[in-house]
Specification:
The complex is a heterodimer of chains A (259) and B (191). With 259 residues, chain A is an alpha+beta fold. Chain A has seven helices and eight strands. Chain B is globular, with a radius of gyration of 18 Å. Classes of the chains: A alpha+beta (259), B mainly alpha (191).
Amino acid sequence: MMSHDEASELLAVAALHAVDAETLAAIEEHAATCPRCQSELDSYRVVAAALGNSVEELPEGLWTNISSQLWERKGESTVMPELLIGDSADVVAISSATRSSRRLRSTIGAVAFAAAASIVVLALSLSSAQSHVTNLEGALQSANRSVVQRALTTPGHQIVNLTSASNQQLAEFVMLPDGTGYLVKSNMPALTPNDTYQLWAIVKGSPVSVGVMGSTPGQVTFTMDSSPSPSELAVTVQSAGGSLTPAKTFVASGPVVAS
Amino acid sequence: MEDIREVSDAQLVTMIARYNEVALAETYRRHGGAVFGLARRVLNGAAEAEDVTQEIFLRLWNQPERFDATRGNLRSWLLTQSHARAVETIRSLTARRQREINDAHKAARGAYDMQHEAWDVVLAEDVKKALGELPPEERRAIELAYFEGYTYIKVAEILNEPEGTVKSRIRNGMRRMRATLVESGIEGADR
């Protein structure tokens, strides 16, 4: 390990990263055990940071790139879509589920995904026949062992009825204890292609984006962290592609309640 | 519902640890420009700076526990991360070549732009003043190390000075700037 004298002489250059990686690691190793050096190094780092404290306009699209990778893990295969929309144009791959260590999903999840995917295919024919509103009841009748049906009979499931300000029911979701959720039925009218419905979970009073649902939500499945659990789900209308922050007005919202 | 813009940086990091994407977006809104600006300054290239910025925010998302609020504020920490990554990048051979290409492009654009670009960005007046008031040999050594990404050994080579001299100049310069920043009341400089 680097001696105190050696390390203390190099603290200022270390704060500027003006040493090689090996030397920096040795300095940091010493500092971790020497409060005096750690404090000195921290204070130099504040100076260095202030020196570099300029602000530039952020490039367009950079946040989108970052945001799209939040739920991925380097070295792992890309997570399969966990929010599926019943429209071939917008089968959306947004996972609200996990990052890094929380990534692994159960076998049930994989089965659920496969089943949900089959529902999407079915939904395509339904939506083409019925145009605007897709009702999952039809799919449920046609699909034995429907994941949604199974979810509705899973112990501990919770139901969320999303109603508009005029008390009209626009959607119903079922959520399982593991954080998986499904759209049970939807009365959300079709939007123009320039807009999308976006689903939000209200966690500790703050909206957390669950994902975009497209302009004509049909079948939706999502996974989100089961802890802390959301108190409400809400839907907004956003520009296509979704938004980082919700529109001022929820078009529908409802509390998560045990069935 | 509490306005996310009213939430403190420390609270934002706590929210990020709870997988709150909106909190990360707000952190990016507050500090992304600075993270990107520093990386761009060191790397002389927007594309490489975007990569660094992306990496820093993904790292914050994946490892928020690495930020220790007792050792400095969030912006300082993010800038330290950004600078470390940018320096690492610039020291790689590929990046060095890219920098030369970028430098060539800038030279073609005009010497005035090159000379003034560093100061066109919004450095805090106190910091600018502190650096400007340093003896020229201290200032030059710090600039080469911090903004050009050279090790102090390489700076010594460039300036044709002994390594020990350069190390001392950087340390003395940093101490002077720290004293100025303490007088200005910049948080964390007075440790």
